[in-house]
Amino acid sequence: QAPADDASLIENDVIDSTGVLELVAFIEERFGIVMADAEIVPDNLDSLDRIAAFVSRASARKTAA
Q1: Please, what's the largest Cα pairwise distance for the chain?
Q2: What backbone torsions phi and psi does residue 41 show, to the nearest 5 degrees?
Q3: Are 45 and 51 in contact (CB under 8 A)?
Q4: pLDDT bracket for residue 2 (50, 70, 90)
Q5: DSSP code of 65?
Q6: Cα-based torsion angle of the residue sequence 57, 60, 56, 10 in order, rounded to the nearest 10 degrees
Q7: How far from chain centre, in Å, is Cα 21?
Q8: Are 45 and 39 within 8 A, CB to CB?
Q9: What is the pLDDT of residues 11-57, one digit of tens each?
Q10: Distance between alpha carbon 43 and the CA centroid of its chain, in Å?
């Protein structure tokens, strides 16, 4: 069963530290976003909701640039 959109992916053992790096690589490749080290934090990546919000913000920032 998939975790809820707001469930922690790390605490629910969906991804580990290697998985986070793979997720970052996927986001960068798929959405053309370069993630700064300061952005690779649970606030941006630890749930589906947080990932979606980050990608939305980063995409808007990229479009505005």
Answers
A1: 39
A2: -135, 160
A3: yes
A4: confident
A5: -
A6: -40
A7: 10
A8: no
A9: 999 999 999 999 999 999 999 999 999 999 999 999 999 999 999 99
A10: 9
- The type of residue at 11 is E
Interior/surface letters 18-33, b for 16+ CB within 10 angstroms, e for the rest: eebeebbeebeeeeeb
Structure tokens at 63: 């479009």
Contacts of residue 34, defined as CB under 8 A and 6 or more positions apart, other chains included, come to: 28
Structure tokens at 48: 């589906």
Q: What is the DSSP string of 13-48?
A: TS--HHHHHHHHHHHHHHH--PPPGGG-SHHHHSSH
| Cα–Cα separations (whole angstroms), residue 41 to 1, 45, 63, 64 | 25, 6, 23, 23
